[in-house]
Write a structure and sequence with these properties.
single chain; Rossmann fold; Ribosomal Protein S5, domain 2; 9-stranded mixed β-sheet; 4-stranded mixed β-sheet
């Protein structure tokens, strides 16, 4: 009896075996082992389908291989120009634009705006007389046209196609040979030579490899749309992220218009850049200066508010943290947070009680950032503590004061990286006071003459500098 060719693969770690397990024996994850059937080497499929796959993999002999080998020191090697997307924010995340023949994966939650971003990008590139091919496996051509009309993304050089068949998509890429190809999405395209289900690990792997082969052989830069799982990671096998050249995460709060584009893998540029975009009725717009997005417009003093600076890529963004402290009527006090780390808030409440004698353990605490900002790095600890202290004491913190520092369990304020850029932005935005850790090193501190820099060594010292401890003790809370 012939041995079965059926194998089982783990979508997370890539483990393979001949037996199915509910839990992967390699990485320990549950429900990630799926049946995988290798592609059939038969001629049972249509001739057109088979010829498309063959044409994407040209046969080479030994002489051809010799000619294709290039010396790194060859002076005839010329760096190819990057294709500009029409969004300066997008280009910066990619490292200056789209490299010829590269495959870029754009992942994000449903409805976050991935298709809108790529359709706007396709329109910008098509306006420069470049041919762009947009292949959708999720929408019909008429649906794409309706969205293109709404966001004013119609162009004579923008070609649309709707198919879920891999062989058809590859044929379109070979015949049209566009300057840019967009496939939306990789989970909806299926190969006839693979018996896996649509969106399954084997199908996604097969589709991605075929698209990469076409992109490399014909020098077609390709943008792939990818789905994400419930925990925010890219759906499909982990090998998908290894196969492509660039992996970008497009995220944001669906309740707000702000969107962030981050590169988690980039073979042609940095991975610490962040692009900011704004979702509008007319499509997506880039935000060149997002410094005022996460701050309230009111200049009136209000207790419980505190401004800090977080770092997004090479940018430092001011974020306003708001806190509300009320008497709890529940056996277990409520902790509701938005935009900050809930587990870190619990730790900071204990540190406030131990080292600053501010009792909040029996209070209901509500902590949120403005406009859906994210303040989860340790450097915002001190700002959260000061915001809670201000809310508990009823004493407001001046809006021209910014606070930064990591709070240790001992109550010590620890230094943080990239302080100079945050001080530069604070000075540019009109802040007059900046509270930082005592042991923070600042190069060329004389540059910040308009800023009153207050150094504090402990949490209690920071609260005293803001007169929060005195007010708190005076009210007897």
């Amino acid at each position: 009896m012939a041995k079965s060719e059926t194998t089982f693969l783990c979508s997370d770690c890539g483990w393979s075996g001949e037996k199915w397990y509910g839990r992967c024996p390699n990485c320990g994850e549950w429900g990630t082992v799926n049946e995988y059937h290798p592609p059939k080497n038969t001629l049972s499929h249509s001739k057109n389908s088979h010829s498309v796959q063959r044409s994407s993999l040209p046969v080479t002999n030994s002489d051809d291989l010799v000619h294709r080998v290039t010396d790194f020191t060859d002076n005839n090697m010329k760096s190819q120009m990057r294709l500009q997307t029409g969004f300066a924010e997008f280009d910066r995340v990619l490292g200056g634009g789209i490299v010829s023949g590269s495959v870029i994966l754009i992942a994000g939650e449903p409805g976050i705006g991935k298709s809108t971003l790529l359709l706007d990008t396709a329109n910008h590139i098509a306006q420069t007389t470049n041919k762009v091919l947009y292949i959708s496996g999720e929408e019909s051509v008429s649906q794409i046209q309706m969205r293109a009309q709404r966001i004013h993304a119609l162009s004579d050089h923008l070609l649309l196609a709707s198919t879920t068949n891999l062989e058809t998509a590859l044929t379109l890429l070979e015949n049209e040979h566009p300057d840019l190809a967009i496939i939306d999405s990789v989970q909806t395209i299926m190969s006839n030579d693979n018996e896996g289900i649509s969106g399954g690990s084997s199908q996604v792997r097969e589709v991605t490899r075929s698209v990469i082969s076409i992109a490399k052989n014909f020098n077609i830069p390709t943008l792939l749309v990818g789905h994400v799982t419930k925990d925010g990671s890219v759906a499909g096998p982990r090998t998908l992220e290894h196969l492509v050249d660039v992996v970008c995460q497009f995220d944001g709060d669906p309740q707000t218009a702000l969107r962030m584009l981050r590169a988690t893998k980039n073979r042609f540029g940095p991975t610490d850049e962040v692009g900011c975009f704004d979702m509008t009725d007319d499509g997506i717009k880039e935000v060149a200066d997002p410094t005022g997005l996460f701050m309230s417009d009111s200049n009136l003093p209000s207790d419980g508010t505190c401004i800090t600076f977080t770092r997004e890529g090479h940018r430092s963004l001011p974020i306003e943290i708001q806190s509300l402290v009320t008497t709890s009527v529940l056996p277990t006090p409520r902790r509701a947070v938005n935009g900050v780390d809930s587990s870190r808030v619990s730790m900071l409440v204990a540190v406030l009680y131990k080292h600053a004698h501010i009792r909040l353990l029996d209070k209901d605490l509500y902590i949120s950032t403005v406009a859906g900002g994210i303040a989860k790095e340790p450097s915002v600890d001190l700002a959260i503590c000061c915001s809670l202290g201000s809310a508990a004491s009823g004493c407001p913190i001046d809006h021209t004061t910014a606070i930064l520092g990591e709070v240790a369990l001992t109550g010590e304020i620890r230094p943080l990286p990239y302080i100079e850029q945050r001080l530069v932005d604070a000075q540019r935005m009109g802040f007059t006071t900046f509270i930082i850790p005592m042991r923070q090193v600042i190069r060329k501190e004389e540059r910040f003459k308009s800023l009153t820099i207050i150094r504090v060594a402990t949490l209690a010292e920071a609260l005293r500098a803001l007169h929060l401890t005195t007010r708190f003790n005076h009210q007897g809370r």
